[in-house]
Amino acid sequence: MTECTWPSSELMKKYHKEEWCRINKDDQYIFELLSLEGAQAGLSWETVIQKREAYQEAFKQFDIEKCAQLTDEELENIRTEYNVIKHKGKIQSVRNNAIIAQDVQREYGSLADFLWSYVDGQPIINKWQRTNDVPAETELSIKLSKDLKKLGFKFVGPKIVYSFLQSIGIIDDHIITCPYHTHNR
After folding, report:
1. How big is the chain by its Cα radius of gyration, in Å?
2. What pLDDT is recorded for position 152?
3. Measured in whole angstroms, how far is the alpha carbon of residue 79 from the centre of its chain?
4. Residue 45 among the catalytic residues
5. pLDDT (tens digit, 9 = 90+) per residue, 110-160?
6. Would residue 73 show up in a list of annotated catalytic residues for this protein?
7. What is the structure's pLDDT at 91?
């Protein structure tokens, strides 16, 4: 079987094998991936993955309640003292998005329930022949991006949202010959 060709480093191969396009409905994990995907805007995913442990430490393992309570001083300390992407807006978006995520949890029961409602609880399992066939965005990511922005989420453009949906398994975009594709596991 031929694996997806995009993972180039060992770190990316590990992410591809163990996490990418795997269904996950844990709100803390979902919030982590939403935050990391937002941090990736304009950069490579590998850059973010290399900093993942620092992000986890800085943002208290992405505990939504703790992230929602971060002060301006704590956010500035994260920016200056941790090996994270130094973009102020991206750092502040974690607190902002945690506050909004709490609102979503109160209204929908969980962040996962809200997101999975867009696909009626069923993952989208694509059957791409080549990595180059995978789109950067779709009607779903455009709609969800607009809805997330209306709720007040930051750094949730359609391309970021599409990558996010892959990262939490709502979309399986492994090429059909990849041993990690849903139909091959």
Report:
1. 16
2. 98
3. 20
4. yes
5. 999 999 999 999 999 999 999 999 999 999 999 999 999 999 999 999 999
6. no
7. 98
DSSP-assigned letter for residue 3: P
Give CA torsion, residues 37, 180, 4, 139, to 10 deg. -50
Question: Angle formed by the axes of helices 139-151 and 158-167, to 10°?
Answer: 100
**For residue 1, is pLDDT > 90?**
no
Burial of 172 (0-12, 13-18, 19+ CB in 10 A): buried
Model confidence pLDDT, tens digit, residues 164-174: 999 999 999 99
Domain boundaries, the chain: 10-184
Q: Would residue 29 show up in a list of annotated catalytic residues for this protein?
A: no
- Which one from 15, 29, 82, 108 is the annotated catalytic residue? 15
Please report where in the chains the tokens 């490579």 appear, as a residue: 44
- Give residue 121's identity as a one-letter amino acid code: G
Q: One of 20, 45, 55, 128 is an active-site residue; which one?
A: 45
Cβ neighbours, 10 Å, residue 37: 24
Cα 101 from chain centroid?
13
Residue 120 φ then ψ, to 5°: 50, 35
Q: In the CATH scheme, what is the code of domain 10-184?
A: 1.10.340.30
Q: Which of 20, 32, 37, 180 is catalytic?
A: 37
pTM here is 0.97
